[in-house]
Design a protein that fits this description.
942 residues, 8-stranded parallel β-sheet, 12% helix
């Protein structure tokens, strides 16, 4: 940007208390889309909208990419003003028509509008857009740094439209209810621009229609004479009797038609959806339409592995639908404003939106440029103001937008105070927030935004928030596992372990007044498959992957955010007494559909209240389903006894014999071998078939936070070369002593074992019921902090079928969730040579994705098991039975199937974890570790 342009921008924004928003005309019904194929640098076809780099074109700092295309304009547009609208260009655009510069814009992810009338010929017109990346707005927003690649190009749609010389330049809608929140005042501010050379008399006419198309209000404003080359602002206050409220649970929309008349004739008409919604702050609560709300939210980036930060309208809507179906009522648009299409979807489907300006990490350690720049330097103020001005101009008429975010994780300064004053002056109808830390010693510099913020609190954060005199928003909380990258590709079960602590966390948020809510970090995996073969980004930190498939965390988010919490009060044998707690903000239980064992039931409880239902059991259980008034299932519960430990009644002969170097135990047709030197089971056979290649040996799996090791400044280390970890049993040196006894159960071996980094005992009981019962009790002298420990078996590779039952954290899971309470999984190992297949659009469920260890489903830890079995295709199987306190994990390694029965397991090593997600971590150095595993041999017809 030239020095003269900078001075003009600074003067424009900083005069008159910085009180102007950029012009964004109310678009007429008829527009011309300029989306499609353009030409790049005079010879290459390029898609608009779309990221340049994702199409194979990279521009470096200081370089310019030149887009061009021909314009075919209707001849009927002659004599009118022709407007050109870009919804987003990253990060600086200079626009020319027929070689004449018509304007420029600095800043990505926001729309801007230009008048191109004076440059048109209405024949052989050529539009040129000169795009630069990595300009000042990119640095202030950390746009390219954050995406781990240069985000450049025309990212969102481009439209062209014509308006009369006297035209609507602005339409701002604000709704306000009376004290009873029944009747409303519709406040409309219009801008009428007279772009002609003579005075013009103009009139405005409004028609408000409900969802059925019925006109509920008509209003004509008085004639207004507007001098040539000036813009007139008019305020209109229209009383509306008992309009339907807009809230996320009842997203009632009206159509506002605005007509501009000159000399009694309609010369321009525009229409948009509006909602009657009022946001207030009282004490430390946020009220919408007079009711306090809790924000059940998630952060959302614009992201797709192949499209980058340039999304289609279909993806925008799909995201809104997926998050709404997960019981979210709030989206924070991190860290830039959303598209018009996403806001339209939020308005229609029912989602609160916090629209964030594209300003990130100003004087934050994650942005190293601030070691060079001063965050209090006034030269940055125009860009900071403009980022917020563009944000407001784009989103101000959307009822879903309930607050403005000034910026993300930055140091508060006098510059931010001026930005806040600008935002409050230009939109006093919404609160503003600023993402810093409102307590503690880190990044807490006394911000004055209406809503306080804190990122990554522990489970006691809501209690602290309740003591604040402002509402406190946890703008980022409950960070998903992401940076423990090798741990995650090894055991996807780490993801499933995130869910139950989230329920505990949100229960705390719900309990405390003043704790406004929070946005989970993050919503969608931030991964980009670049055309040159690289995979980059922050990685898999979303409950939804980049292909829009739900991951294991999705059900956890949905459970935590359930608008109806169902608990069992009593079990009277034949029936259950259930309590329904209504956690909706605006909806009575009589509005939702509740089914118990498939039969609709009627309950009535206001928000925050409870209702009780007695239900007869069916087949010993009660199944409950709640369907939201908007049409999706929001709650499913099954009330049934826990899965019992299987009981087996059979008899096998058990014999043993000492042989050179060891012991042979015959258990029916099966033969076990124990090494006399090591005191360990060497193998299990039936005739010539090997069923186990190494017996249960103690294994300690350490926590591993390895992020892949790529150089970075803020954790953007996702890359192709992230490989699974390998795990082994403790290295056994020798057995000090082995005792053999015969009991009524069978034969018992007790071994005193010396490992490289542990010592203690392990026993084996070969029972007449066809079981191996093995127990261990060791003193461990190895590393400090385990992820898991237990007994590790090795089986031949063809044991590639797993089935299980468990007492899960939740009673109902999706059928394709790796954490489902009962299921079957296949090994299906696949060598891909990198963290995920580059450029490959997956065809199946997330559970079926695979690497060399096996499918996500097969290799993920199954927690709280009662039964797990591994089988081959010949009818052979081994089964572990448990009491619901152990955990099973299987994977392929070194040409054998490894099977860990863990007596201890935690939630993994993610560094962002705070309580309750970090709960359960232990230090076992020089501590006893112990456990017990029961392995059941199959009946055989061989």
């Amino acid at each position: 940007m030239s020095k003269s342009v900078f001075i003009i921008l600074f003067t424009f924004l900083c005069s008159s208390a910085m009180a102007q928003l950029p012009r964004l005309s109310p678009r007429p019904v008829d527009v011309v889309s300029l989306n499609g194929q353009w030409e790049l640098n005079g010879k290459y076809p390029v898609k608009v909208p779309g990221e340049l780099l994702m199409q194979g074109f990279n521009i470096h700092e200081g370089e310019t990419a030149v887009y061009s295309r021909k314009l075919e304009l209707p001849q009927t547009w002659k004599g009118q003003r022709v407007k050109l609208r870009f919804d987003a260009v990253s990060s600086h655009a200079s626009v020319l028509v027929n070689g004449m510069k018509v304007g420029e814009h600095e800043g990505g992810f926001v729309p801007f509008e230009l008048d191109i009338t004076h440059a048109l010929r209405f024949g052989n017109d050529v539009l040129t857009v000169e795009v630069q990346a990595l300009t000042i707005s990119d640095y202030l927003a950390c746009t390219s740094q954050y995406a781990a690649h240069t985000v450049a190009g025309i990212l969102r749609k481009v439209t062209l439209f014509a308006v009369p010389e006297t035209n609507l330049s602005d339409l701002t809608v604000v709704t306000q209810f009376d004290k009873n929140y029944k009747n409303a005042m519709l406040r409309i501010t219009t801008g009428i621009a007279n772009e002609s050379d003579k005075i013009t008399g103009a009139e405005i006419r409004f028609t408000l229609k409900d969802a059925s198309g019925k006109a509920v209000l008509r209003h004509s404003a008085r004639r207004n004479d507007i001098p040539a080359r000036t813009t007139s602002q008019q305020a209109h206050e229209l009383a509306v009797k008992a309009p339907k409220h807009w809230d996320p649970e009842h997203p009632n929309l009206y159509e506002l038609q605005t007509e501009l008349l000159l000399n009694g004739h309609v010369v321009e008409s525009t229409s948009r959806k509006i909602g009657f919604r009022q946001v207030e702050i009282r004490g430390n609560e946020v009220l919408v339409n007079g009711r306090p709300v809790k924000l059940r939210g998630v952060n959302r980036h614009d992201v797709h592995p192949l499209q980058g930060r340039s999304l289609s309208p279909a993806l925008d809507r799909q995201d809104a639908e997926l998050f709404r179906a997960a019981n979210c009522n709030y989206i924070r648009t991190s860290h830039y404003p959303p598209s018009e299409e996403f806001l339209d979807a939020a308005d229609e489907l029912g989602l609160f939106v916090e629209s964030e300006s594209a300003l990130t990490w100003i004087n934050h350690h994650a942005a190293p440029i601030w070691k060079l720049w001063s965050y209090t330097d006034g030269k940055f103020l125009p860009y900071m103001v403009r980022a917020n001005a563009d944000n407001i101009a784009a989103g101000k008429n959307h009822p879903s937008v309930i607050m403005w975010s000034l910026g993300n994780e930055s140091n508060w300064s006098p510059l931010w105070a001026e930005v806040l004053a600008f935002v409050k002056k230009n939109d006093p109808s919404r609160p503003a927030t600023f993402h810093d830390q409102c307590w503690g010693g880190f990044n807490n510099l006394g911000s004055k935004a209406d809503i306080a913020n804190y990122h990554y609190p522990g489970v006691n954060g809501p209690d602290a928030a309740a003591k604040s005199d402002r509402p406190v928003l946890f703008g980022e909380y409950a960070h998903l596992s992401c940076y423990n990258r090798r741990e995650l590709v090894t055991d996807p079960g780490v993801r499933a372990a995130w869910s139950a602590p989230l329920v505990t966390f949100y229960d705390s948020i719900y309990h405390y007044q003043g704790s406004l809510g929070g946005a989970i970090w993050s919503g969608i995996d931030d991964i980009f498959h670049l055309p040159d073969g690289k995979i980059v980004g922050y990685g898999p930190w979303g409950p939804i992957d980049g292909w829009r498939r739900p991951k294991p965390e999705y059900i956890g988010m949905k459970k935590a955010y359930e608008p109806v919490r169902i608990t069992q009060l009593r079990d009277d044998g034949q029936q259950l007494t259930l309590q329904f707690t209504n956690r909706y903000d605006f909806t009575s239980l009589k509005e939702v559909r509740i089914e118990a064992n498939g039969v609709p039931v009627n309950l009535d409880a206001a928000p925050g209240k409870t209702a009780v239902l007695k239900v007869k059991k069916r087949d010993g259980a009660v199944d409950v389903k709640v369907t939201d008034p908007r049409g999706f299932v929001c709650v499913e519960e099954r009330f049934a006894p826990p899965v019992a430990v299987p009981v087996h009644s059979r008899t096998m002969d058990v014999k043993w014999v000492e042989v050179p170097g060891g012991y042979t135990i015959r258990q029916g047709p099966y033969s076990w071998t124990i090494s006399k030197t090591k005191g360990l089971i060497e193998c299990l056979r039936r005739d010539n078939d090997t069923l186990m290649t190494q017996g249960p040996v103690v294994s300690v799996i350490p926590l591993n936070g390895d992020d892949g090791g790529k150089p970075n400044v803020a954790g953007e280390t996702y890359q192709n070369n992230i490989y699974p970890l390998k795990y082994y049993p403790l290295y056994t040196i020798f057995a000090r002593k082995i005792d053999v006894t015969t009991t009524s159960e069978g034969v018992r071996f007790d071994a005193q074992l010396q490992f490289k980094n542990a010592e203690g005992r392990q026993s084996y009981i070969f029972t007449t019921k066809g079981e191996l019962i093995t127990e261990y009790d060791l003193k461990y002298n190895g590393g400090d902090n385990p992820y898991q420990y237990g007994l590790l078996l090795q089986l031949p590779r063809h044991f590639d079928r797993m089935s299980w039952e468990r007492n899960g954290e939740f009673s109902v899971y999706p059928a394709d969730d790796i954490a489902r309470n009962k299921g079957e999984a296949r090994l299906n190992a696949r060598t891909i040579g990198e963290v995920e297949p580059h450029g490959e659009i997956p065809a199946g469920s997330w559970k079926d994705d695979a690497n060399e260890l096996g499918s996500n489903d097969f290799r993920s830890t199954k927690r709280n098991i009662t039964r797990v079995a591994l089988a081959n295709g010949n009818g052979d199987s081994l089964t572990v039975t448990s009491n619901g306190t152990q955990h099973s994990r299987t994977w392929l390694q070194d040409a054998a199937v490894h099977w860990l029965i863990a007596d201890y397991s935690n939630n993994g090593s993610e560094g962002f974890y705070n309580t309750p997600h970090s709960d359960g971590r232990i230090n076992i150095r020089k501590q006893p570790i112990k456990g017990k595993t029961i392995i059941l041999l199959p009946w055989t017809n061989h």
